[in-house]
Amino acid sequence: MNSTWKNNKKNFDELEVIEMYIILLLGVVDRPIPSFLHLEKEMFILSKVVHSLSKILSFEKHYKGPYSDTLKELVEHPLCHEDAFKIIDSKIFLSKKGKKYYFNIINKYLKDENFKKVLFSAKMIRELYDKLSEDELLLLIYITYPEFTEKSIEYERIISSKEELAKKLLKKGLITYDKYEEIIMCDYE
Amino acid sequence: MSNINVIPDTTFFICFIEDIQDYESLIKIFKYENFLFVVVNKVKDELINSSNYKKIEEYINEANLYYNEFCKQFKDEQYNFKEILRPFFSKKQIKKGEDEVIVIAFIMYNIGKDIIFILDDKNARNFVENNFDKEFCKKMCRTTRFIVECCCKFKIFNKDETINILNSIKNSKFRIDPNIINELKDEIHRC
């Protein structure tokens, strides 16, 4: 693990906050997140919603869209919330200890209206983005945030099957018909 | 009765301000003491840009007094809620603010607020019904249904007034199946 993290208290506090957001995202809905890709992209969306999170958690352009090595490290080796996470068959969820952390956070902050807005934003993200397959998730991320197609090794493959993916999304009721038409008609390069 | 947070889409306002040009009825709804209007940013932008906005600007500003505290958060730079649904909605729908209405309604509902959110676009309505639980979906209604509720439930309008509003809507360019208007009129007679 990067030793500069331990030496820099400001970073340590930030990492604790990021872990809390991961715990909230995992805990707000009582089922595992389907994959690390889902966790990463959902945290990306959450950071787009919550400006203070975007200041401490940045994403870079990478092989599969927005990527954060901080996130990966913290899920595999949490610094402040020991043993909070479990990964089984690529699904990620809160351990028994992680659930305790989650409820502690809830009890501490639930009277704060701003906290509730963040919590239920996370809930909405989970309710929607968990339903996407990895390819569907990448398609929506790439076409919404095209800056992250740079360096992608998946983009060409995903875009070449956009019609099929869009049809599946429409059938699942996950995109509106207007969005479906937009995806089909648009010439993504 | 506790306060109900009403979160309308653009169509609701355009119906009264442009399609039927019935400012008096809109003001009556605004002034109902148990409603707190939550007007999301995009809807407010569309409203301000509508050709007849000036006529009710004064009343809209007065209605600011009734804006729920939550609405002021939209002026706060802390959150950008509409990013949540941005990947799922078309640019046209995002411009109208339908995604924003859904997100705000969802968050307020989960916080425990009593809400009504008004969505007329069929695609947006289908999206809600396909993805969220039934109890949340029950809080969603169309503009015309809301008008009926304003009569039968909230007693803002009497039956004759409501029938007149619905007739105006039927004869305007507001897109609705005339049979639905007739069904709603029957409902008003029975309520």
Ordered list of secondary-structure elements with their pairings:
The complex is a heterodimer of chains A (189) and B (191).
Chain A: H1 4-7, H2 9-27, H3 36-49, H4 51-56, E1 60-62, E2 65-67, H5 69-76, E3 85-88, E4 91-94, H6 96-109, H7 113-129, H8 134-144, H9 155-160, H10 162-171, H11 177-185
Antiparallel strand pairs in A: 1-2, 3-4
Helix pairs in contact in A: 2-5, 2-6, 3-7, 10-11
Chain B: E1 4-8, H1 10-19, H2 23-31, E2 35-37, H3 41-48, H4 53-63, H5 69-72, H6 91-96, H7 98-111, E3 115-118, H8 122-131, H9 134-137, E4 140-141, H10 143-152, H11 159-170, H12 178-190
Quickly count the helices of chain A. Answer: 11
**Strand pairing plus helix content of chain A: what structural class?**
mainly alpha
Q: Mind describing the biggest β-sheet of chain B?
A: 4 strands, parallel
Helix content of chain B: 55-70%
How do the strands of the widest beta sheet of chain A line up side by side?
Answer: 1-2
> What percentage of residues of chain A falls in helices of 4 or more residues?
55-70%
Structural Rg of chain A: 17 Å
Count of individual helical segments of chain B? 12
> How far apart lie the N and C ends of chain B?
19 Å
Task: Give average pLDDT of chain B, whole number.
Answer: 88
Instruction: Give the overall shape of chain A.
Output: globular
Distance between the termini of chain A: 38 Å
Characterize the quaternary organization of these chains.
heterodimer
Number of strands of chain B: 4
Task: Enumerate the spans of chain A where pLDDT stays under 50 for 5 or more consecutive residues.
Answer: 1-8
The biggest sheet of chain A, with number of strands, parallel, antiparallel or mixed sense and barrel status, is: 2 strands, antiparallel
* Rough outline of chain B: globular
